[in-house]
Each structure stands twice: as C-alpha cells, then as structure tokens.
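User: These chains co-purify. Model them together.
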Amino acid sequence: MAAKQIDNPLHIWGHYTALIVLALITLAPIWVMIATGFKDDVLVQQKEPVWFFFVPTVENYEYIMTRGKFDRYLWNSVIVGVSATFLTLLFGGLCAYALARTEFKGRVFVANSTLLVRMVPPAVLAVPAFAMVINFSLDADLAVLIFFYTALNLPFAIWLLFGFYKQIPVELEEAAIVDGATALQVFFRVLLPLMKSGYAVAGIFTFRIAWNEFILALLLTGRTSRTLPVGAAGFITDTGVEWGRIMAMGTLIVIPPLLFTFFAARQIIAGMTAGAVKG
Amino acid sequence: MTDFTAGSVAVRTRPRDLSALIPYFFILPAVAIMLAGLVYPVIQAFYLSFYDWKIGTEFSGAPYVGFGHFIRMLGDENVWESIWVTIRFGFWTISIEMFLGVSLALLLEKPIRGASVFRTIFILPLMVSPVVVGLIWRYLFDARIGWINYYLVQVGLEPQVWLGDADLAFFAIVFTDIWQWTPFIFIIVIAGLQALPSEVLEASKIDGANWWQHILFVKLPMIRSILMIALLMRLIDVFRALEVMYILTGGGPGRSTELLSLHIYNRAFDTQQLGYASAISVLLIVIVTTLSLGILRMGNPMKDKSDI
Amino acid sequence: MTLKLVKRLALGAGAALLASAAFANPYAKYEGTTIVVSWPALAHFNAAETLVEEFTEETGIEVEIDALQYLKLRDRQILEMSKNEGDYDVVSWVVMWKGEYVSKGLLTPLSQFFTSGSLVDPQYDIDDIAGAYLENGGVVGGKKGYMPGASGALYGVPFGAETSILAYRKDVFEEHGIEVPATYDDLTAAMTKLHAAGIPALTSRGKTGHQVTAAWLFHLAPMGGKIFDDAWNPVVNSPEAVKAAEFMRHVAKTGPLGIETFGFGEASAAFLQGDAAMHLDTLKIAAMSRNPKLSKIDGNVGYALHPTGSRCGSETGGFALGIPQNAPNKEAAFLFIQYMTSKAGDQRMVELGGDPIRISTLKNNTPGNPEYPVVAEQLPCADPDWRPLIPEWNEINIDVLGQALTQVITTDDPIQPIMDEANEKLRAIMEREGYYTWASYRKSN
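Assistant: Joint model of the three components:
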C-alpha cells in the first residue's frame, strides 16, 4: 500500500511521452542545422521552413571542401585537438598521480590552487594572450593555441584523474613495490592499465574543448593556423550569412563530438557527474 | 576541509633522498604549464591595466596611467550595466534550468528501458561547439527568414525582431542557454538520485510519506550537495560565457546582451582599449575567484571525487 | 664526365636565355613568389578572385587570398602588421582605418614603387582613377591629417571604392505611383506612403555599433550635419544631427523587419530578396542586384542620386589596397595592386561583376550598367570629411554613437537628450585624448 502511494505519479506512458518530447526539443535545432547544410540557397532563404522533404544538394559541402580551405582548417583542428589532449593527459595524469598517491610539501596547496585556476575565464586570457603573441613575436600560432588549450584543460583533467586514482586500491601498488618495481614502473605497468576509462573521460573532455573553442582561436590564429570554428564563423560574410555553407561546416564540426557522444555516452556522463563540468 | 589522507605508501618505501623529489618531478610539467598559461596571464592582466595600451602600437610606448582605468571603471555605467546583464542572465538561466532539470529528473528517474538512448540525446547540446549553437539559433531567431517567426505568424502572432529588441534579444540568449544547459542539470541530478542508498529511501517509504513529502523531505536534502555544486558551477560559467552571445547577438542591441566577458572582449578588440579592458578583467577575476572560493568552502569537490 | 659537362653548358645557356627574357618581362623576377592578400568577403572581392587567377596565369606570381568579414579585417591586419615580419603582402582597408594605419606606421608609402622604372607601368595613368576615390582611399595627410591636400602622401590605391546612391524598385514605385525622390522630404513622404501600403520602404543597416552609426552617417552629411566642427568640438546634438537621427527612427519604423539587427549583408539581402522597396547605401548594390545568386529583383532596379537635404553629400567609403611596412614581398605586392587597378584590370572587374574605380571605365561601360551615369554624377558630391578618420573614431563610432543610435531606433525616447548625452561623451573622449590643449593654451595666453 505504502509503496504504491509514493510511486512516481507519472504513468509509464506519460513517462515516455515526456522523454520523447524533450528529446525532440533537444534534437530539432541540431536537425535544422544538418538539413540546412543540404539545402540550396533558394530553400535556405525561403521563409516557410522545410523539415524533411526537399531535394538534398551537396553543393554547400562541395564549396567548403574546394574553395573554403577546409582541409587546412581541419588539419589545424586535428593537430591542436590531438596535441592538446595528449599533453593534457600526459602531464595531468602525472600530476594527478602525485597528488593522489604521494606525500610532499605543498600538496594541498597545489591541489587547491588547481581548482582555483580552473575557473579563470577565457575572456581574461584574451588580452594577455594577445599581448604575449605581439610582445614575444610568436609566429608559431598552432603551438600557442596548443599551449593555451593544455593550460585551460589541465586543472579539470587533474581533478578528474585524481578521483580515478583514488579508486584504485593502494594494495596493488604495494604488492608491485614488494616485487621490486620502481615508482615509474608502478605508474606505467600497474596504474595506467587500470586508469584506461579515467583517461578516456579526461581525453574526451579535453578534446571537446580544444576542438570547439572559438574566442582564443579567433585571436591567436592567422591565415595558416585557423581552426574549424573560426573557419565556420568566416562564412558570416558581408554579403550576408551564407547559411547553407555555414550549416554544412557546422555539421562537419559537430561530427567528432557526436561520435564521442554515441560511443562514449557513459564516460561523458561519468565526467559530468564527477562534478558539474564545463569548459 | 580537504581529504588528502590516502596512501602515501608507494613512495615512502623508496630511499629517502630520491623519493622526496619524485613527486615534484611528477607535478612539475603540469604546474609549469598552468603557471605560464593561466597564472601568468592573470598577473599580466593586472599589469596591463595600469597602462593605456592600444592595439597596433608598441607596448613600450603605452603611457602609464596608474589607477586611472580603475577609477574610470567605477564610474563607467557601461561596465555596471554589463554586470547587471550578467546577473539577470545568471538569475533567469540558472533558476529555470535548475527548476526544469530537477523536476524532470525527479519525474523521470525511474529506470526504464531505453534510458541510455535518451541520455545520449540529452548530452548532445553540451557537446556541440558553442559557435555552432550560436549559429543555429541565430538562424532560427532571424527576423526575416527565421523559423520561429514563421511559426509565430502561423499561430496568428506578430513576427518579432528577436535579436534586435533589448528584451527579446535577452530572452533569446536565455532561451538558448536553457536549451543547451538544462539537460546537464537533468543528467547530474538523475545520477545523484540513482546513487542514493536504497535503505534510506525504503525507510521513508515505510514511514508512510507521500510522493511530495518524499521528494521534499527525503530526496532533495540528500542530493543537496550535488545541487549546490551544480548551481555554483553554472554561476561561474555565467561569468565565463561569451562565445554563444558573440555569434548570436554580439552583445546588442545596445548592451542588452553584453555579458561581462563579452564586454571585456568588445572593449579590448572592438574599441581597442587593451589597458582598460584589462582593468575590467581584473574585476571579473575578483568576482570569479570569490565564487570559486565559495565552492571550495562549501566542500572541496576533490573530496567528492573519491567516491564517484 | 663529358656528358655532365655538356649538360652543365646547356643549363648555363638556358639560364642566360632566361635571364635575358627577364629584362623583357617585369614579372619574371618574381615568378614563383607567393603573395598573401587580406581583403573582405564582399561581392566585389569575390568577383575579383577570377581576375586574381588571371594575374597568376600571366605573371607566375602565386596569390593566396585571405577573405574575412570586413569588420574583422582590422584586428587581423593590425596584429600581422605589428609583428617584425607580417603574413600579409597586400592589405585592403576600409577608408576609415587609413589614418590609424598610417599614424601607427603600419603602411609602406607607395611613392617608392611609383618612382621605380622597372616596376611601374607607363600606361598605368593614375590620374584616370576617380579623384574622390584616390584621395579618400589612398591619400593620408592634408587638413586634419586624413583629408586630401597639399601635404598628403599616397599609401593606397582604391579598389572596391564606393559612394552612395539610391536604388529603388521600379516596379513597386510604378505600381504605387511614387516619384523617384530627389530630396529627403520626398524620400520621407515616399517611405510613409509605401509603409501605409504595407510595403517595407527603405532597408538600412542598424546593428548596434559600427553599423547603426554608418547608417546614420548616410543621412547626416546631406542634412548638413557633422560630427565635429573645425575646432574638434562635437556637434552630434545639432538640429541637423538630431534630424538625421529622427530620420533613422522613421527608417526603422517604415522599413523591413529586423533593421535593428542588420549589418550590410542583411540590409542588402532584404532589398535583393524583395523585402524592401529602396536601398540607400553603397553603389555596390547595383552589381549585386545583377547577380542571380544574390538577387531576385534583377531588371526591376532603378538608380538615382543620393537625395539631398540642405546640401548634396554622399558617402566616401569602400576599400583601398596597400602594402604593409612589414610585408615580405613588397615589389610583387605592388605589381599585384597595379595589375588589379590598371585600365585592363578595371575593365575586367566590370565584366566580372565588380565596381570600377576609373573614370574611363565608367564612361565606356554605360550600356548594361545603368548606375554608372548616376555614379559619375554623384562622385563630385562625395564628402571627403564623411567621418572623422582619427584614431579615436573607433571608440566614438562603436561605443558612443553606436549605442546612442541603437537607443534612437529601438525605443521611443526623445531624441534630443540621447544625442546631448552622446555629445558630452564625445567631448570627454576628445578631452581625454588632448584635442583641446591647444585651445586652452591659446586662451590662457
């Protein structure tokens, strides 16, 4: 009796209906983007929305692939994303390990400061980063971007990996040490294999931010080092926003994060719930 | 306040002279990068705020103005207006997102078939690049060819200039933010609810509480810390946000959607007052640091980490 | 061994031949060089890409174009030009930035190229370029430091330069019996009439910041207003300036939906897509209206002079090409600019759907380009003091006027107080930047 009283008042069908409506609200704008990317200019400028039934064209994709220097932007984005992710995981992992597993002077201070610098707003970085580029005459733009993305992502990665290290029983390491392993061997042979999913989560979040980031990329990249989001914003031209092309570009930008979402939703949710995350 | 008591065994058993240094080698690269890439720019922002430096000129030629920028900032109604916009934006987005996210989570927490499909869908808006989010909604809100206006006319309402009216543009950025971030609250609250120990829930069922009482007096208090952290994180995000608005409205019309971060950006790169923009950055740093210390005081999230 | 020797001799002879060919071909020395051009993503420049390809074919100089939204150009260009060695060999600026670029020492004076016998083409004929264009786009110096005059020096050549003309829908005007407006009073009446008939009248830019100020400037000069008087006192609250602001409000109320969000692209799209009956902005609209990709109204567009208020005054704007002081390939860059703005290049731009800068081109191409006679007649009215091209203009333009005028077009607040407040803010900026030190020095003596 009592158990029935406190059942969720929503019937199972109501439950599904609500979820489906929410899912549609979530998906509709993304679908609009994908569909618009496959429309020709006439359809795009047409006031009456067409959701599904139109003759798709790939002319927008053709344009951005051939005229828009898409290959260069893509290559830059890949380099920046992969390098920043690799560096973040490497250095962040080492740091998280030290914080979780060793005792040293200043450990608590480093841990707390890491949390504090995580909150530094990108807008605050904008002017000093711009100043650094000018005053140090930095020309290797991609390296500058990779550096800032690594810095921006390290605090969160450390924080996340710290939690994962904490979950691994200390006994495993003790056993390895008894067997005569050095600290480095313990790290690489015992801990890393157990940390796979932790690194996957941290990697996805780091890559996502490095791949999507716009403001710093806009400031710090030049003609040869522009990344995809900056390239996409380039289609807001003076002859009007080229909606078809911009949506095609948007669709292409969204593909990797979309793939991550479909194949690693569990890890992403783990990362988010690990403490209200945002980049 | 912090829980850093776990195993320090591993290294202590090594010979003392070397082992004392090993942790520092481990943290050195990360700390160095964070110092150079996050802390140094913040210090640089303080430093630049004492100079009247304009884009395109040599910094060495920029005149020193002392606290001039800070004095100007205190009397600058534009700065206060953008802080006020940020606060209003934070208030509306966070309260609506929390309300929607938490109520949906409570309604829909029951494990059902296909839950993982829905969850995957709900994290999509968070994975989409902010630039792309801004572009999509700029298209939908467009006054001339936007889909939203078309459907308004269909149901017999007047078409609106969504991004060209102070109140409507503000509504548009709030709406976009809610679309993007409500699922986030929803997902973490659901995760929090499903991680609650079942014994306690059972106990309250036996006490005969009804559904509402159960929610209000048992479940919500139990996920209080998750809610608090989510709320503060969103609050800090509000002070960090600028990319979506940069694309969607650029801060206009007037300054009606110019959040503090965007205001700094526009000041620095539109009107080219790098020094003055740095002074406003300092203000932003102070605000964000205060909020962050608040989070640390509320409970170090690193502590929560140990039981993911 | 002998074979190698023969090969070497042959190669040497070939090189000698090539070298002698180089004397005959001014481009040969730069063959294989790649120059980088920074210019805006406007229709004229998109059309120019074909001419750029022809340039590469003819000269062997490779060109990479970096086309950006024009308001984003300046950040990028200034950043590149502030470095020791920049990325760009050619930059295209909006005329309003030239003063800033030159005063910050970012550009190369063109005289060093125009005096080089091996570079300059004797048939180039710089005097054929419309005087208003050349002076406004390329000459820096003179009175106030940014106007034509004896003390000016040449830093750029106009390309994609413009003035303002009125474009209107012949079919709509005919249907509703509206005369082509010659004065602002006619124009205001026509707008009211069109609006009453349910037709959005005049499209306009109106987005906060640069765009809304640019729109207001189109009406300020003909109405007799100015930003500053001759002693740098701001006068944006004068009766003329307030009248121009009132007109802006009328434009927003009778025009197409969304003017408050329009930049140039959106404003012109509204006209070209048939959502507005008039377009009072750059002459670029004419070429755009003939482009089937952009326009639904080709064949229905008429052109007239920019209506007059208390005087005739039209925009001086658009773009010019110049060479950064830190450009890696300055001479090849000059050859590029010369090619694009030569008589042949100018003619080719017309064929490609761009806008000419030379008087001879305007005269030779009247058939098929109904706006050219209007442009030729309009040019003498182009106001060289269209906006104050001082370094402080960005702040004035975006932060002060751009905000005040947004209030004008998005609210019903009384206009005089808005402009009074803007005027005070302008005065404070000029005070801060030391524009009044001479005046107070004179007074104290």
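Chain A has two domains: 1-57, 68-273.
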